[in-house]
Write a structure and sequence with these properties.
The complex is a heterodimer of chains A (392) and B (312). Chain A is an alpha/beta fold and 392 residues long. Chain A contains 12 helices and 16 strands. Chain B has one domain (15-311): Rossmann fold. Classes of the chains: A alpha/beta (392), B alpha/beta (312). Strand 9 (207-208) of chain A pairs parallel with strand 2 of chain B, so a sheet runs across the interface.
Chain lengths: 392, 312
């Protein structure tokens, strides 16, 4: 029987990687990702996980090493955050372009300057277009489940793409939660051994990572785009199978009290839990407010989102990223595109909140809903607004 | 002596391996000394090998999709990280073998990079891989500048050389710094095997690659690689320049086995460096005074190697 234990989310993620029987883990320490890789190194040192733990000299080397190990046929995992993700950036694009199914946890954290170790989504949003499948976890249980799901999807020969599971730094990574750790037998049933279609093998030599001359480059990029779009089907199927084995259900877009909702908040990651509390409070007060939580960020589930938002008059979209000089935040922009010229589309307002560890409280969600309601009547000058700015 | 090398048997000119890890028909320049050296490296390594290439001349000339000159498994990820990619490959082979998912048979893991990929942009990745002790061979094919991007200076460009970013002018003689000593940096990592080699001494080169592959742990071979395009030398002279660099003591051939220096070819009657410098457009602006300085410094550097050989 799977046991429910009180456990730090980072430790639980490491346990999930152990349950997935990762064979190579290459990582470089960065706050707030450290507890994940520390625990993995312990599991390897204690012989509980038969893997090579490679304590590399930088995040760039971490992901480069992962490219080598997965290309040679080993199940491969890494984790990073913030500046580390930025340092990896070059290799992120190479890994996905080469269709190397690496699984990575990103403990989301703000970017310098000023330097901040606290949580927001600015790190991952710089890598929005890196071509990896990306999901967001809302709590510790989801972090564990999405980690197992990531191995299942990434390594599927029909997908063969790397995958990032985003977890909010500190807010998730460093809290102790009651989490059900699955049984090994169930995980083995869910996750078959890694058997890549192509690998580095002297018996069957192939060349990986060749030069893309102008005659082939466009097609290669297009094939990548098609691959990640086609992957959505297998991502959802792997969630169907997850429910069959483990009894928990996941969807690309999660709905919360959206029935007859006129104003719908849109969130990603751990603030969704506070948003649910805020929605409950506003519902108690008779306000027709609901919540949509984006779980699958790349490929973006446009049709699923439109379906989930059906009937909503206003969307209050929360971005945890400030894109200086842009028209709005990345999630706001995405949804404006998804609803562009769609008949009966809701009005979309974009709020930037929770930067560099600032809490997004129930009151802040109420403020966003109120503002969105008033902006629906009178259009604001700007397409986005920063919420929770100190007056003094 | 390292136990792995006890069974070492050198190659002979009469019985060179017929196998070619690297096929002809690639897009190297005429007279390329680098691809010549790489061919010898691959011949010495045989079939059971996985090659991790850094971005650079050797990567682009061998892999314009849908063509490939590689008869062995080959991977290219980026410019600076071939040693990290090789770390990953080596670790994967280790764990898969341990778990019974791969046969026990040994596969050599080799990283290949130019002087820029090795001594400048990629130094940290190699340092990390060597410090961790991965069983790999790192081969640096040193053509003394960024040739792939159009002959810009690197840390390995020799003193006085003209490149597109070290042009000689009224206030400069060209490259103003002395060539960075990469093999010595590798020796400082206390790895079991470091060597320098030249395609003009092909048996010596192949034997060193074979030894590098035989030792357990990291091994490094630094190969002098004439580049007619970048040096402004004649294509048919590449092997000659490779030999002259050794005979003039500009590029000493040696091995460092577990910290012990062994000079491969002691130059007792050296030719003057001017013989090596002449005929290369990159050096033609140098004055007699410049050449005298280079001669003095070359002699001193060579002397250091001899002294290290005595000391160790």
């Amino acid at each position: 029987m799977a046991k429910r234990v009180g456990i730090e989310v980072s430790i639980a993620i490491a346990e999930a990687v152990k349950l997935a029987q990762a064979e190579v883990v290459a990582a470089y320490p960065i706050t707030p990702q450290t507890h994940i890789v520390e625990h993995l190194s312990e599991l390897v040192a204690d012989g509980e996980l038969d893997a090579e733990f490679i304590p590399v000299e930088s995040e760039h080397a971490a992901l480069s090493t992962c490219c080598g190990s997965v290309a040679a046929g080993a199940r491969t995992y890494t984790a990073t955050s913030s500046q580390g993700l930025m340092l990896m950036s070059e290799v992120l694009y190479v890994a996905s372009g080469m269709r190397l199914p690496i699984v990575m946890t990103v403990a989301n954290r703000a970017l310098s300057a000023p330097i901040s170790i606290w949580n927001d989504h600015q790190d991952i949003m710089t890598q929005r277009d890196c071509g990896w499948i990306q999901t967001f976890a809302e709590n510790g249980q989801e972090a564990v489940d999405l980690t197992l799901h990531a191995f299942r999807v990434a390594e599927d020969r029909k997908v063969s793409l790397p995958m990032i599971v985003n977890i909010d730094g500190f807010t998730l990574s460093h809290v102790i939660e009651p989490i059900e750790l699955p049984d090994q037998a169930d995980v083995d049933r869910y996750l078959p051994p890694f058997k890549p279609k192509y690998k580095l093998d002297p018996k069957k030599p192939i060349s990986m990572g060749p030069v893309g001359i102008p005659e082939v480059y466009t097609e290669a990029r297009m094939a990548h785009d098609q691959a990640i779009k086609n992957a959505k089907r297998w991502i959802i199927k792997a969630w169907d199978e997850f429910e069959e084995v483990f009894g928990r259900r996941y969807n690309p877009v999660e709905e919360y009290r959206t029935e007859d909702a006129e104003i719908v908040l849109v969130t990603m990651g751990s603030i969704s839990e506070t948003a649910m509390t805020a929605v409950d409070k506003m519902r108690d007060e008779g306000k027709k407010v609901g919540l949509l939580k984006i779980r699958l960020w790349r490929p973006f589930p446009g049709p699923e989102f439109r379906k989930a938002a059906k009937g909503a008059k206003v969307l209050a979209v929360v971005d945890r990223t400030l894109a200086p000089g842009a028209s709005s935040g990345p999630v706001g922009e995405e949804l404006r595109t998804v609803f562009y010229k769609v008949p009966g589309a809701p009005k979309i307002f974009n709020f930037i909140a929770g930067l560099g560890g600032r809490d997004v409280t129930v009151e802040r969600f109420e403020e966003m809903v109120d503002k969105a309601a008033s902006y629906a009547k009178k259009r604001p000058k700007e397409l986005y607004e920063v919420i929770g700015v100190r007056e003094k | 002596m390292i136990p792995e090398l006890e069974k070492f048997k050198g190659f002979s000119a009469k019985r060179l391996p017929k196998e070619e890890g690297l096929a002809s028909g690639h897009r190297g320049c005429q007279g390329c000394g680098e691809v010549l050296a790489l061919r010898m490296v691959m011949k010495a390594l045989g079939k059971d090998v996985i090659v991790c290439s850094a971005t650079g001349c050797m990567e682009i000339i061998t892999s314009p999709y849908p063509q490939s000159a590689w008869n062995v498994p080959w991977i290219h990820v980026a410019f600076e990280n071939a040693a990290a990619v090789a770390s990953g490959v080596e670790s994967a082979l280790k764990v898969l073998r341990r778990k019974g998912k791969l046969p026990k048979k040994h596969i050599d893991v080799v990283a290949v990079g130019g002087d820029g990929a090795t001594g400048d942009i990629g130094l940290q990745w190699i340092s990390g891989a060597f410090e961790r002790g991965h069983d790999m061979v790192y081969v640096c094919l040193d053509n003394e500048a960024y040739m792939n991007t159009g002959v810009q200076r690197s840390g390995c460009t020799p003193y006085g050389a003209m490149t597109t970013t070290s042009p000689p002018g009224k206030k400069s003689i060209g490259q103003v710094t002395w060539k960075k000593n990469i093999p010595q940096i590798m020796v400082a990592h206390n790895i079991p095997y470091v060597a320098t080699a030249s395609p003009a001494y092909y048996l010596d080169l192949m034997n060193k690659i074979k030894k590098a592959a035989m030792v357990n742990g990291p091994a490094y071979v630094h190969i002098y690689s004439p580049c007619p395009t970048g040096w402004g030398s004649r294509g048919e002279k590449s092997v000659e320049y490779a030999r002259l660099a050794v005979e003039t003591k500009v590029f000493p051939l040696y091995e460092v086995i577990e910290g012990k220096y062994i000079v491969s070819r002691k130059i007792t009657k050296p030719k003057p460096v001017s013989e090596y410098l002449k005929g290369q457009r990159r050096f033609r602006h140098l004055t007699e005074e410049n050449i005298a300085y280079i001669q003095k410094r070359v002699d001193e550097e060579y002397e250091k190697i001899l002294r290290l050989a005595e000391l160790t």
